[in-house]
Amino acid sequence: MYCSIIGHPLKNPRSIPIWKSYFKKKKLKIKMKGIDVLLKKFDKLILSLKKDKNFFASAVTMPYKKSIFKHADILDDSAKLSKSINLIIKKKNKIKGFNTDVYGAYETVKKIKKDKIIIYGYGGAGSAICNYFSKKYKKSKIIVISSKKRKLKTKNVKLKKKIDSVDLCQTNLFINASPLGSNLKKNYISRTPIDQNELKKMKKNSTIFDIVYKPKKNRLSKLCKKNRIKYFNGLKMNTLQAQKALQILSDNIFNIKG
Length: 258
Description:
Number of helices: 10
Strand order of the largest sheet: 2-1-3-5-6-4
């Protein structure tokens, strides 16, 4: 039996050592590997995994968290609400989809005031967090910053192309759901979703949640420190989602054994 993480490009994903360590601790003879697959071969890969008797489960990362949706036969509530999947488990040639990312994000900001939320970026992570939060926090006002046209049907969510000064002055929580500041590409590392002048407009008791965790410290974290704005990166979210994924795996391994 084996598990995997599927994505492109894969750059030393944390899931591999975390899952391997867990299987070793539980004395389970399950292998864990990375599968770096191009978009044109993605559908064929998933169909082959469905038929593979040795395949058990996989983490799903960029850019396939939405592409995998059409292959799922069963959806967990987390996947239904977020409209995105980052974990699949196979049972009797059927795939069940979960989203532990939104669980990690939800738990990370649980104790933070969220009257008004700005989500910068509406890609895989941004759209999943927006979909999930808009249903979990129905009284909160959510502003999504995206340069692309999107159809947002949720009443408490508004789409804007640029960050508005008035929104910044009123927001409690700013979420960077974009890759800006990450090491995924060279031109991302030095960039930030919000600059020095914009940070000054934010309330001192507001919080910036940056889903980027590689590198741990980037330009945004330094700007927040300089302006005394509470900041935390995506490391906690990533750790929590991994723990949740392992819990789900454990429950399903038990069911298989039973």
